[in-house]
Amino acid sequence: MSADCHRDVAALWPTSHVKYATALEEAQKAIQQLFGKIKDIKDKAEKSEQMVKEITRDIKQLDHAKRHLTTSITTLNHLHMLVGGVDSLEAMTRRRQYGEVANLLQGVVNVLEHFNKYMGIPQIRQLSERVKAAQNELGQQILADFEEAFPSQGTKRPGGPSNVLRDACLVANVLDPRIKQEIIKKFIKQHLSEYLVLFQENQDVAWLDKIDRRYAWIKRQLVDYEEKYGRMFPQEWYMTERIAVEFCHVTRTELAKIMRTRAKEIEVKLLLFAIQRTTNFEGLLAKRFSGCTLADGTVQKKPELPPPSTNPFLDDEPGTETDETMMEKSDIDRPKKPKVPDNPFHGIISKCFEPHLYVYIESQDKNLSELIDRFVADFKAQGPPKPNLDEGGAVLPSCADLFVYYKKCMVQCSQLSTGEPMIALTTIFQKYLREYAWKILSGNLPKTTSSSGGLTITSLLKEKEGSEVAKFTLEELCLICSILSTAEYCLATTQQLEEKLKEKVDASLMERINLTGEMDTFSIVISNSIQLLVQDLDAACDPALTAMSKMQWQNVEHVGDQSPYVTSVILHIKQNVPIIRDNLASTRKYFTQFCIKFANSFIPKFINHLFKCKPISMVGAEQLLLDTHSLKMVLLDLPSIGSQVVRKAPASYTKIVVKGMTRAEMILKVVMAPHEPPVVFVDNYIKLLADCSTDTFQKILDMKGLKRSEQSSMLELFRQRLPAPPSGMENPGSISLTAPTPEQESSRIRKLEKLIKKRL
Question: Is the pTM of this model over 0.90?
Fold first, then answer.
């Protein structure tokens, strides 16, 4: 079977080979034919290209010839126009036909520009020189005509302007710009010559009290100009505005000169009067003119309005008005933001008053000094504010008066200047903010007296309402709260005042405005007020704590209700805290600070007096434990004590009370524990108090009434049982263990409550 297959394959192989060879040969022939056709196409394309070049060669030559011919004809026409124009220009110049010259001269200049590349040709150069000579002659001739019509010395030519001068101005537009500037300069100088004579420095009308006459004079002159010369000058020359601007420059120079000479005669009212009238006039100019001549003739863009402000102190300012209203009103009493001026003429005259604004600053210094003195006198005459527990602590009305006056001064000064005078005014503000803080606020805080002697248990039992223990009266407590509220108001308003001053002053001077020191001063007043309230309540509780430490706790035979000293402490808390809370209703955060500071002061003092209770019997320790728990509950409820609205105490305050009073409870629990066996007692102490201080352990032993010999062995055992100190610590006596977790504290509190109930 295999042999037959091999024979069949061998028989088929020659036939397949011949078939593939024939196909390959045919493909090669087809490729050769294709290459031949491509070559033929390429040859035909080259012949076609050559033929096109031969056809277009003649067309290009004709195009070049046509272009040259057109250029030549155009140049000859321009030359003809130039020659005729130059001749006509010279003739019209001699006859002063300025109306025709204005149109012709521009055309001649335009035609001459076509011959700039032909200036090497003598005839063309000669024509160019003739044009320049005609321009120079026109310029000199026009200047002479204006000099004749408006001589520098003497009055204007009778009869008013002529058509010749009006056409001459049109020609000046085409001539060198210096000719136009010379015409404008001479005309304005001649127009204001009378002003310089009338308001010379030695004239009575030149002084500030008659500054209105200056502005009345220029108003009449502008009206006179419009009537007589309004049509003589082209509208794009803005001659009316130029006269007004030059008047402003001259007036500023003259006013600066006369104020330097008579500086001692400048008073505040006179200076403000002059500035008021001047800024009014500048506002009038802004309404009448665009200010396009203020920047060398370039038209200024209309200033964009500032974005709406989010400052609440701008509510009564024009930021709440519509754009149209803001642009229409020009009352100078309205504060304006110097960052985006809407008056291009602002300061064009009034800038001269800046060197003399020290008079205004000194006046404000004097006024503020008198204002502070009046506040002091009023406080002494009227006395402290009356208690008003329904509305909370009242802010002293004098602080509102002070900041209203500050705002008035700031707005007024920002209208006068946004430069150095604003910095000087800020310095004055700082000075009297500090004086207000010390003279009105700190100076009127009640003074603390020396602490009285301790009370006995008998005196505590006889004490009625605790009135003889309280340091401050109701009026004094209300006064302290009122001063605290006032200081907070001043602190917040001073920060806003700083922001407003930075808005009003130049951007380059913003960094020099800093009222941080004054804000710190009011913060100190707030802190001192809180400290006074804490000291008062703390001092009221001192006799009770002293009585606690003097009780014979080893003689207590049974556990009863809370001790008299606890009742006394609670009484003082209930007397003072509601008054303070109601008077600080508007400043809740500072009432919270008062509570925290009182807890931080009272609890350590209570623990110190607890250590003084020695020796203590088991029953005495249980009574103290009951008292401590009662005080703890009262302290936890202290922020809302005596209030109809129960509000949860702040977490920060609760944490302090729980931590401090739990420590006091653990101290008593250790005291209640038996000291035998000693090892168990020491381990129990370390576990409950988490305090490895030998001093604290010594105090615990004293409270238990152990003898010195027993204490020595206990202390030695305590040192041995102390855990190993962390690396790097040398004094193991100062080591404190990790504080118990809130869950552990809660569990201990529950055990303590069960113990107290069981004993009761």
Answer: no
